């Protein structure tokens, strides 16, 4: 892609690309979204981070006018949703969670057919195809059938498809789920590129590294509520101690043979204000790791890893360690 | 929308269904030959098999050769089948399996436009297949071609009605298996009592009365005279019944689809 030919248009409109106030969505007795407030700033990448079932996808569906909220106010591209959602979607590009490319079409046909849904004329769409394919790294695949593409290629084509209308706002629902590391890195790189060019991006994910890498701001969601919001660095600083020491291995210091769990029961509280045992590992969250590390180096059999606190620590602190099915 | 009341609001139709229709047409164009041949083979085999076979036993029905009598039935039968198969199996693929509808609704197109596009597309496909059958039966001299072109708008209308009925099933279907019930409990019995193979006058009175409530009967009441070179009677009545089925079923299908997808 050429820098002077933006794939997206930064609109001059002063309105927030997406603003959500007091959003609630109830299905029967279950409140899937229980009061969400969100105001995207133009040009930022905002990430909704949450475990499965946190309400991320439902929030997006409400924002796009694909389902009516039980309560709350939504404005997308400056327009009220759901009342004028259809018009608002003219300005938005969407990468859905599940692959929905047309399997009967080639890559180029997928883009042409999708562009028509925006009322774009044939010549305009055709003129955009080369740059869209180039952006997706699919230059040679113009006439390739969808079945012939790898998972990563399909995702990139879906991303290109979402850009066919040159959106102000790009929304991605778990864009790298199911991709191998190489394919994920390529998607991230493309999103970074769009972000630098000024596109506002809203993405949902349950991958911490994805959020930490891409987000200017993020919110952690669980059970339909936003637990915290801010830049990744601020969220980590506000929510958790700066240092983490993971302790695992064998420990004989208690008289009988045991593991990190036995060690933690006896000693962790003396060094860490907060610690958690998960499986065979004890996680100690500390302001200053030096006393703990000195103690650990004297414990035969125990092994440990000292690292700075990250988003995953915050996430697990806020959402717990139980499995979400 | 979440409440059942808003699911029943009037269809909001617009020209935005056209790009969705074109998407389906583009898929069809890639497979046009096998598609037309597939839709043609079944009725033509029936027509010639039964037409000549039963035609030996029953030389004339109502003053015409049995095969000429059967021709109108086969045109309507194949129109019904082409439209039904399209909205049931292909429509379900697009709605549920391939997530095509979801992708379209992420663009500035509403569900109403998508369902309407499915309706018009299925009728269009029925028309493409129906035209091929008309060509075959005209070429073999089985029908009087004086009014044969009137069959084209009729096929389209019948296609719309059966597409709408099929869309109700698609809206309710948990899987492809569900459609078997629709065919065995509705389509097949209707085919047997609607005058496709024999005049409905042959039916016992109760069954005959029931048959007059079915859309296929009215389609055949129009198609048969036209293909025998005569103008049909009660045209407005027959057209209203077919159109009424189509309109009512479309509204029902749309309400059920809204409830399924916009929740």
From TrEMBL, chain A:
The keyword Chaperone does not apply. InterPro entries: AAA+_ATPase (IPR003593), ABC_transporter-like_ATP-bd (IPR003439), ABC_transporter-like_CS (IPR017871), ABC_transporter_ATP-binding (IPR050763), P-loop_NTPase (IPR027417). The keyword Heme does not apply. One of its GO terms (molecular function) is ATP binding. PROSITE patterns: ABC_TRANSPORTER_1, ABC_TRANSPORTER_2. Keywords: ATP-binding, Cell membrane, Membrane, Nodulation, Nucleotide-binding, Transport. Residues 18-248 form the ABC transporter domain. It comes from the Bacteria. Belongs to the ABC transporter superfamily. This is ATP-binding cassette domain-containing protein.
From TrEMBL, chain B:
It is found in: Cell inner membrane. Keywords: Cell inner membrane, Cell membrane, Membrane, Nodulation, Transmembrane, Transmembrane helix, Transport. InterPro entries: ABC2_TM, ABC2_TM_bact-type, ABC_2_transport, ABC_transptNodJ, Nod_factor_ABC_transporter. The chain crosses the membrane at residues 31-54, 66-89, 126-143, 149-172, 179-200, 235-256. The keyword Cell membrane applies. It is a multi-pass membrane protein. Residues 34-260 form the ABC transmembrane type-2 domain. Part of the ABC transporter complex NodIJ involved in the export of the nodulation factors (Nod factors), the bacterial signal molecules that induce symbiosis and subsequent nodulation induction. Nod factors are LCO (lipo-chitin oligosaccharide), a modified beta-1,4-linked N-acetylglucosamine oligosaccharide. This subunit encodes the transporter. Belongs to the ABC-2 integral membrane protein family. Lipooligosaccharide exporter (TC 3.A.1.102) subfamily. The complex is composed of two ATP-binding proteins (NodI) and two transmembrane proteins (NodJ). This is Transport permease protein. It comes from Aromatoleum anaerobium.
């Amino acid at each position: 892609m050429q820098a002077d030919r933006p794939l997206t248009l930064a609109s001059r409109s002063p309105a927030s690309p997406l603003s959500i106030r007091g959003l609630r969505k109830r299905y029967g007795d279950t409140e899937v979204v229980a009061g969400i407030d969100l105001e995207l700033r133009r040009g930022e990448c905002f990430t909704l981070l949450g475990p499965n079932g946190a309400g991320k996808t439902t929030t997006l569906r409400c924002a796009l006018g694909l389902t009516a909220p039980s309560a709350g106010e939504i404005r997308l591209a400056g327009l009220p949703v759901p009342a004028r959602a259809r018009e608002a979607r003219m300005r938005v590009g969407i990468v859905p969670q599940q692959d929905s490319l047309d399997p009967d079409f080639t890559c180029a046909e997928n883009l042409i057919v999708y562009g028509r849904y925006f009322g774009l004329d044939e010549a305009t769409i055709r003129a955009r195809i080369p740059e869209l394919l180039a952006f997706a790294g699919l230059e040679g695949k113009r006439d390739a059938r969808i079945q012939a593409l790898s998972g990563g290629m399909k995702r990139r084509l879906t991303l290109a498809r979402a850009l066919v209308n040159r959106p102000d706002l790009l929304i991605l629902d778990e864009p790298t789920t199911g991709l191998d590391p190489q394919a994920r890195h390529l998607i991230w790189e493309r999103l970074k590129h769009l972000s630098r060019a000024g596109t506002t991006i809203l993405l949902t994910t349950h991958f911490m590294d994805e959020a930490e890498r891409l987000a200017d701001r993020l919110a952690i969601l669980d059970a339909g509520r936003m637990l915290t919001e801010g830049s990744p660095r601020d969220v980590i600083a506000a929510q958790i101690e700066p240092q983490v020491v993971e302790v695992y291995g064998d420990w004989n210091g208690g008289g009988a043979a045991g593991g990190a769990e036995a060690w933690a029961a006896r000693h962790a509280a003396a060094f860490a204000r907060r610690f958690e045992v998960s499986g065979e590992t004890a996680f100690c969250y500390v302001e200053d790791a030096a006393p703990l590390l000195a103690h650990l180096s004297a414990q035969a059999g125990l092994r440990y890893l000292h690292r700075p606190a990250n988003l995953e620590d915050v996430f697990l602190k806020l959402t717990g360690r139980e499995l979400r099915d | 929308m979440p409440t059942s009341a808003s699911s029943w609001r009037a269809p909001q139709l617009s020209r935005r269904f056209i790009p969705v229709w074109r998407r389906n047409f583009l898929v069809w164009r890639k497979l046009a030959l096998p598609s037309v041949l597939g839709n043609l083979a079944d009725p033509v085999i029936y027509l010639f098999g039964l037409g000549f076979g039963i035609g030996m036993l029953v030389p004339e029905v109502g003053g015409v050769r049995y095969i000429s009598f059967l021709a109108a039935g086969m045109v309507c039968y194949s129109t019904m089948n082409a439209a039904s198969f399209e909205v049931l199996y292909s429509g379900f693929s697009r709605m549920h399996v391939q997530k095509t509808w979801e992708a379209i609704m992420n663009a500035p197109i509403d569900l109403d436009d998508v369902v309407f596009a499915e309706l018009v597309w299925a009728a269009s496909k029925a028309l493409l297949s129906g035209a091929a059958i008309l060509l075959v039966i005209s070429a073999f001299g089985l029908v009087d071609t004086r009014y044969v072109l009137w069959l084209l708008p009729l096929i389209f209308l019948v296609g719309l009605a059966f597409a709408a009925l099929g869309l109700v099933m698609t809206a309710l279907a948990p899987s492809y298996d569900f459609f078997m019930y629709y065919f065995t409990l509705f389509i097949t019995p209707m085919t047997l009592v609607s005058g496709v193979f024999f005049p409905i006058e042959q039916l016992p009175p109760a069954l005959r009365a029931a048959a007059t409530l079915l859309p296929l009967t009215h389609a055949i009441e129009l198609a048969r005279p036209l293909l025998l070179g005569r103008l049909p009677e009660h045209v407005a009545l027959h057209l209203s019944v077919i159109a009424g089925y189509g309109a009512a079923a479309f509204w029902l299908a749309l309400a059920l689809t809204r409830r399924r997808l916009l929740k």
